[in-house]
Amino acid sequence: MTDGSWVVVVPAKPFTAAKTRCAGLDGSERSALARAMLVDVVGRLTRARRVRAVVVATTDPDVVGAALASGAAVGGTTRGPDLNQEVLDALSAAAAALPDARLAVAMADLAGAEPSDFDDALAAAGSRPRAIVSDADGTGTTMVMVAAPDEFRPFLGPDSRRRFLADGYHDLPVTGSGLRRDVDTVAHLVSLGIDRLGAATRSWAGSPAGARTGPPILPASVDERDADPLVGALPDGRGTR
Questions:
Q1: Which of 14, 41, 116, 213 has its CA 20 to 30 A from that of 50?
Q2: CA 226, CA 74: separation in Å to the nearest integer?
Q3: 11-39 burial by CB neighbour count: b if 16+ within 10 A, else e?
Q4: Which residues fall within 8 angstroms of residue 111, CB to CB, at 6 or more apart?
């Protein structure tokens, strides 16, 4: 891990329930894409200078395995399969383990976001108690920053940007397309371009499923910086699950 001041929580649906808007892909192909993007997002967050630890919010065993193998800790909830509740519980566990850390939430499908994009957004948040990064469509959010778990609001989902702003969150002036483009469709993925994608998502894009859903994209060699796994616990040795 780095010596950054932020813990970033990444909410992740079960792979089998993710990316349902990706027309042209069957269930196994959507699952593989969701897994690849999560692996890359976690890997890039762990390399961001301002990030101290990454926690994936999930209770799904398959997602837990992928998260731990990619260098994240894992936090969930026993209070039902609710993504917002899983995020809140993960934020609370992170704050208990690292009480001096700032807290953020980043979506699991930011396939084009580089470590520097995450750093820029966290720097822009500064000491604001509540902030968001809006998505490219202007209706959703790709990141949420809070000073403490009780500042988090359960607005993740459709029309989240409007609800966060109505509750007083600051909309950060982040312009990086990689951080503002969450991937809900194959067209979103293609629009990012192969060079922006992490190693796992590039590999998926070069598979038969990826090749038939957009312009031909040849498999890229694995970038060791994207593939290097880290430890599966918070820096003080405590996991969150």
A1: 14
A2: 19
A3: bbbebeebbeebeebeeebbbbbbbbbbb
A4: 37, 40, 41, 181, 183, 189, 192, 196, 197, 198, 201
Q: Which residues contact 46 (CB under 8 A, 6 or more apart)?
A: 1, 2, 54, 71, 72, 230
Lowest mean pLDDT across 4-8, 55-59, 172-176 = 172-176
DSSP assignment of the chain:
--S-SEEEEEE---GGGS-TT-TT--HHHHHHHHHHHHHHHHHHHHT-TTEEEEEEE---HHHHHHHHHTT-EEE--SS-S-HHHHHHHHHHHHHHH-TT-EEEEE-TT-TT--HHHHHHHHHHHTT-SEEEEE-TTSSSEEEEEESSGGG--S--STTHHHHHHHTT-EE-----HHHH---SSHHHHHHH-GGGS-HHHHHHHTSHHHHHTSS--PPPPPPHHHH----SS-TTS----
pLDDT tens string 124-160: 998 899 999 999 889 999 999 999 999 999 999 889 9
Tens-digit pLDDT profile for residues 26-84: 778 888 999 999 999 999 999 999 999 999 999 889 999 999 999 999 987 766 668 88
pTM: 0.84
